[in-house]
Write a structure and sequence with these properties.
3 helices; alpha/beta; globular; 8 strands; 4-stranded mixed sheet; 2,3-Dihydroxybiphenyl 1,2-Dioxygenase, domain 1
Length: about 140
């Protein structure tokens, strides 16, 4: 029988294969305000963080032959959901992201299901599907801590 205590304590990092390493790095750092915390030019890879999460961005070997992910047909990362601290921040982020070059907006901020969470979904310049979400229940829990 399995031990009921989890063997893990959270996510260390998430690795994403991207079509264009530089445009995805610029999106995370220049648009979202993340920082580069490391690089491996020989791989090539860039490690970025918002101070809470770390992503490893890996350049695919042959970008011109890369196959875009189809969330209905492929096994893999359906999307990456990132939390935003408050509703005003979510709306401001949507405005900024919507103006960023080569970003595809799937939908603007709207309730997730019946709410109270609000979210929007995009594809960043390399095609990775990202969700940005604000959940007032999490904001209230953070304030209690």
């Amino acid at each position: 029988m399995a031990d009921p205590t989890p063997s893990t304590v959270g996510v260390d990092h998430i690795g994403l294969s991207v079509q264009n390493l530089e445009s995805t790095r610029r999106f995370f750092c220049d648009c979202l305000g993340w920082s580069v915390i490391g690089e491996r030019p020989d791989y090539p890879a860039v490690f970025v963080s918002d101070g809470h999460q770390m992503l490893t961005l890996w350049q695919v070997e042959s970008p011109e032959r890369a196959i875009a992910f189809d969330r209905r047909a492929n096994v893999g990362l359906h999307h990456l959901a990132l939390a935003v601290a408050d509703r005003a921040g979510l709306d401001a982020l949507h405005e900024r992201v919507a103006k960023w070059p080569d970003v595809v907006i799937e939908f603007a901020p709207e309730p997730s299901g019946k709410g109270p969470k609000t979210h929007f979904m995009i594809r960043e310049p390399s095609g990775i599907r990202l969700e940005f979400a604000y959940d007032p229940r999490l904001e209230a829990a953070r304030k209690r801590q």
